[in-house]
């Protein structure tokens, strides 16, 4: 027994004498991902990490100073096409390539590109139909609408965009549209159909997903149509049905609708008010126990949200912060509904629907921000709130100052933005961004339990201020 011990300690001493050298530093690059394409801006941010955190590090020969976590952030000047960064630390060398491409075609390459109508369009009798294309500046550009030739005029603020309009005093079906200019190739566009009356439809899609949009396929959300709602359309654009309510005209995806035959509905439908019966703010005298607050931890499951330099995920930070807010709200007496309590993906409108179905009094979505590729996370670092309507704005304007007071970073204030989780016309909804995860300091601090507690208490205080109608 004794001799074994002796041999053992001798072996230990020898191994210490000839200790293996420490493992070579490990370098991991998070942004821009290898092989990815970023928009061609002057520079883009680069994040990643090195272990150990104090190992010397260079990128293309220039020193990089990692934060104490090992996470690093610097701005990298971009060139068009392939960009290569060579990271070196001791014997470790990592070559990392990605691409930078201009976001939009920089110039019109001497050709005509139809803008409107790109797809088949349907309109009413005598209704002006917009016709537009891009073509080299200073040309005579025309559009053939069936047998008619219509000259286009260059736009005052953009001489490469040419406009005209056409209307029909009688119904027509599938009239071809062709843009042309001498010496350039003719460009066919979407055809025109004009009718006196357009079909009626019934909404078959889900509430919050059937959106009336300001532009076909995209654009602002002008409101939501509830399942079963029936209306008369006034035309179409490609796969989108057009409808004109008294106060707003917009487009709905045909996939969310079923055509009704023989229905006699008024030409101008009344826009359905799905917020009716939902108060914009708690009635006077309401106590916390009378109120249900939905706390939404952003992202989850396959959707990890933004990534920090050390690969910490936004979805994890959101859930941790949301749980602290939940506990703090419960302690203050509120009823709370969490849209998720574990790491799973929940559709954006499913989160909105939970608040609507439960007639929640407020909806608070918890996120951590990150800049776009060309932004500098170090200077962008701030807190901020996003809202879609006045109800959400009123709520956020009470919460935001309370968070700002304890955050220690810049306050970006309350911003109107059309984010899916905030697009709830009924429940006052806001999305809070607590710090930026794509800078090393932010990535470290958002996982700090004491700071999460401070933020949670601030949110509760903000909600209490909102109920009382008293600004801080
Ligand atoms: Zn997010």
Please give a structural write-up.
The chain is of the alpha+beta class and 472 residues long. It folds into 4 domains: 26-101, Sandwich (Immunoglobulin-like), CATH 2.60.40.10; 113-192, Immunoglobulin-like (Sandwich), CATH 2.60.40; 200-260, Roll (SH3 type barrels); 288-468, Aminopeptidase (3-Layer(aba) Sandwich), CATH 3.40.630. It has 7 helices and 31 strands. Strands 13-12-16-17-10-22-23-24 form an 8-stranded mixed sheet, with no helix packed on it. The chain has a 6-stranded mixed sheet with strand order 27-26-28-31-29-30, with helices on both faces. It is flat, with a radius of gyration of 29 Å. The relative contact order is 0.11. Bound molecules: zinc ion. Residues 298-299, 305, 314, 367 line the site of zinc ion.
Protein traits:
alpha+beta; Immunoglobulin-like; SH3 type barrels; 4 domains; eight-stranded mixed β-sheet; six-stranded mixed β-sheet
Specify the number of helices: 7
The main sheet orders its strands as 13-12-16-17-10-22-23-24
The secondary-structure class comes to: alpha+beta
Looking at the overall shape, the CATH architecture of the largest domain is 3-Layer(aba) Sandwich
Radius of gyration, Cα only, in angstroms? 29 Å
| Backbone shape | flat
* Strand segment tally: 31
What is the CATH homologous superfamily assignment of the largest domain? Answer: Zn-dependent exopeptidases
Number of individual domains:
4
What is the third-level CATH name, the topology of the largest domain?
A: Aminopeptidase
Distance N to C terminus: 74 Å
Average pLDDT reading: 94
What is the CATH top level name of the largest domain?
Answer: Alpha Beta
- Characterize the largest beta sheet: strand count, sense, and whether it forms a barrel: 8 strands, mixed
Approximate helicity band:
10-25%
Low-confidence stretches: none
What percentage of amino acids are in beta strands?
35-45%
